[in-house]
Write a structure and sequence with these properties.
Elements (H helix, E strand, L loop, with lengths): L15 H15 L4 H25 L2 H7 L3 H21 L10 H10 L7 H9 L4 H26 L9 H20 L1 H10 L1 H26 L7 H28 L4 H12 L3 H11 L4 H27 L28
Amino acid sequence: MTRRIPRPPSWLPVDVHVLSLAATVVLASLLPARGAAADVTGGASTGAVSLLFFLYGARLSTAETLDGLKHWRLHLTVLACTFAVFPLLGLASGGLVPYVLTPELQAGFLFLCLVPSTIQSSIAFTSIARGNVPAALCAGSFSSLAGILLTPLLAALLLGSAGGGFSADSLLRIVLQLLVPFLAGQLSRRWVGGFLTRHRKVLGLVDRGSILLVVYTAFGEGMVAGVWHQVTPVRLGALLAAEAVLLALMLTLSWYGARRLGFGRADRIVIQFAGSKKSLAAGLPMASVIFGAHASLAVLPLMLFHQMQLMVCAVIAARRSRDPEPPGDPAGSEGSAPGAATAVPAAMT
C-alpha cells in the first residue's frame, strides 16, 4: 500500500511549502551552518540556484510562448505592472526610512518590487475566478523570462550599494548562475522535455528542496552575522503593514486600470492576479546572487509578501468565481495558446 503525504486541513491558510519554509527559517536560526559546513552549504546553494534555472528553461515551451505573443497588449500590461508600477511604489517606500522601516528592510522591500510575477498560483487563481487561463500561463512565463535580465539590472540601478553594488564580477555571477543554466535548459528541452513531463511530481520536490536549501543558507548566514538583532517585533509589524498597503494598491490598480484599458473580464482577472503577485521561487535564488552574504534580511519581505498574496488572492478568486458573466463580455480568447496550461513549472510560485 502506498502512503500518502499528509496535508494540512483545508481551513489552514497556508500550504505545505509555506510551512516548510517557516520550518527551514527556524532550523537556520537554531542550527546555522558554520565554518567548513557553511562552505559546503554555500556551494550546494549555488549549485541549487543553477539547477533551478536549468529546470525553468527546460520546462518553458518556446512554441507556446511565441504563440502567446498574439495577446501582446495583455502581456505588456502585466509587465508594466511588474517592472514599472511595482518598482515605483518600492522607490516611494524610501520615505518610510528610518521611522517605519530600517534601511536594510527597505532594501528588501524594494527588491520584492523588482521580482518577476508567478506562474503556478496566477494560473490557479485565474482558473478559480473563471479567467483566461492560457493567457495567465503566458503572462507568467514572459514575466519570469524577462525577470532573469530585468530584476538584476533594476536591482543594480535602484539598490546600489544595498544590493552589493554592480560590478563586472557581479554581472558575471548573474550570467553564469541564472542566464547560462536557463539557456542550457531551453537548448536541451527537445531531449529532456519528455523526461521532465513524466517525472513532474518528483522534480517538483527537487525544485522545492533546492529553494529550501537557498533559504537555509541565506538565513543561516544572517544568523551567524547577527543581523536578526536588527529586526524587532515593532519593525516586523511595520513591514507587514507596508506590504499590506502595497498589495492592496497593486490589486486595485491592476483591476481598475485594466478596465480603463478596455480589457474584458477574463483578461482583467489575469492582469490582476499576474500583475499583483511576486514569485518566491524566482526571487530567492536571485537574492542569493545579488545580495550575497546580506541576503537574509533582503528575502524576508518577499517571504512575508508571498504568504500574504496567497491568502488575499484566494479570497478574491473565490469571490470572482461567483460573479455573474456579463453579457457580451470578451472571453479573453484573443491570442490564447490552446492547451498551454499543461506546461506549468511546479516551483514557479
